[in-house]
Write a structure and sequence with these properties.
Layout: H1 2-35, H2 51-59, H3 66-79, H4 85-90, E1 96-97, E2 102-105, E3 114-117, H5 136-150, H6 159-171, H7 176-183, H8 188-197, H9 200-209
Antiparallel strand pairs: 1-2, 2-3
Helix pairs in contact: 2-5, 3-6, 6-7, 6-8, 7-8
């Protein structure tokens, strides 16, 4: 009986030792994992809309309906001024300078102020629709509905309008640091993503060299 008790005791000691060893290995593995390089998160390229697609989008808005007129103003502010949807909704009449053809964006993302150009297609009557009464969801719904009716890419979303502004500025030769200012990006790296999304200049340079 004494021998059996000793055997049980030894087994229990082995068990404890194994458990301690596992705990030690787990701690080491956890420490090693910290030092491993983090897996790079896939950065989706911004999707832009062409002038042709934007014209088709706008054509789906019934200009006899007040709510569609308001939506058109909102779409223009995103597409031709690069405003975020939240900035469009928070815009006030006094933020628009018709003489200088500019818009003062107060406390945009990260509470940063900036000045952007008034849309080229801006009409005098549009000031009557500021501030925009539609909410974020209503504008997004109207946008997606117009995209569907126009037979455009169903993956288009409202923020594509802002992406389009940045892409078109770069395509027309505006220096990237100026585009950064207009977009209100805190880092030039954020603006650089538009170059990768539509590397027209890089491809053109390649053709010239080879």
């Amino acid at each position: 009986m004494e021998d059996e008790g000793e055997k049980r005791e030894i087994k229990q000691e082995d068990k404890n030792e194994i458990e301690n060893k596992l705990q030690e290995l787990y701690a080491q593995a956890k420490e090693l994992k910290k030092n491993l390089p983090k897996k790079a998160r896939r950065q989706a390229l911004p999707q832009s809309m062409s002038d042709e697609d934007f014209t088709k989008l706008i054509s789906q808005l019934d200009q006899k309906k007040e709510r569609h007129k308001e939506a058109k103003v909102a779409f223009l502010l995103a597409y031709e001024s690069g405003l975020r949807i939240s900035e469009i909704i928070n815009l006030k009449k006094e933020d628009i300078n018709l003489e200088r053809k500019s818009i003062f964006v107060k406390e945009g993302k990260y509470s940063k102020d900036r000045v952007v150009p008034l849309p080229k297609s801006w009409k005098n009557y549009m000031i009557d629709y500021i501030p925009i009464k539609k909410g974020v969801r209503a504008l997004q719904y109207t946008f997606k509905n117009a995209v569907r009716k126009a037979g455009l890419n169903p993956s288009y979303h409202f923020h594509c309008l802002r992406h389009s502004f940045a892409t078109h500025c770069l395509e027309r030769g505006m220096p990237i640091n100026m585009v950064q200012v207009l977009m209100g990006h805190s880092s030039i790296g954020t603006t650089n993503v538009y170059v990768r999304a539509n590397p027209a200049d890089a491809l053109k340079k390649y053709q010239e060299m080879f």
